[in-house]
Amino acid sequence: MLVVDDDPTVAEVVAGYLERGGYTVDRAEDGPGALERAGVFRPDLVVLDLMLPGMDGLEVCRRLRANGPVPVIMLTARGDEDDRILGLEVGADDYVTKPFSPRELVLRVESVLRRSRAPRAPEGVPTLEAAGLWVDPAARRATKGGVELALTLREFDLLTFLLRHPGQAFAREELMREVWGWEFGDLSTVTVHVRRLRGKVEDDPARPRLIQTVWGMGYRLDVPDTEAPHGTHGTHGAAGPTAAHDRPAPHEPRDVRDSHSNRVPPRAKG
After folding, report:
1. Helices 153-164 and 188-201, interaxial angle, to 10°?
2. What is the pTM of this model?
3. pLDDT digit string (tens) for 102-146?
4. CB distance 205 to 144 below 8 Å
């Protein structure tokens, strides 16, 4: 693990909890130092503070992701909702707001690592193809109109999941559990990833024809009635009318900045 924070107390506490969890931890105090240590240390995951001297966490995240798909969990101040959304948009896998529980952070780390290390689909898993999109789960490749798509880990998993369930509506809580494997977390994570995925697979992201918002619920992938994704199982029926402008549902925030209070409740124990 690489922990990047200019507050020595926070860095020490986070590093201590991660080490007790069995992880080897390196530390950096600023943006340039983080990039230098990442180049040498090759971390499996980076815990990255947003506000850093020399270079902010957003730029560090961009540069880390330019060099490879290292998972990033961003630490942010509670009032910086816009910055948290920007963190997700530049590729952070998750974020934790300060003040936070170190134990919760360790659980987030374990969840992100578990998902990033998920076994590749075995050879022979059928490819998925619909509406000009082609996905090979085994090779983790996706194309649109024959042009390869540059998808992040979560974007690829989200597209694959939706292609396997055409015409079926999913709440954001369901998508977070099925795609992210998380039982808790900020639902704006799903909203931001859907928006980013639309920007890559839709001809006009402002008027999406594939990934539709389902009023009061979540999202659905629509494909032409005569075309079902190859390799999928189950029935694909007409999805029903959709809003031309994909207007937000009355119960879905118009902007992700309004959705920070929507969290996935943990499953009941027992």
Report:
1. 80
2. 0.61
3. 888 888 898 888 777 655 555 567 889 988 999 998 888 999 999
4. no
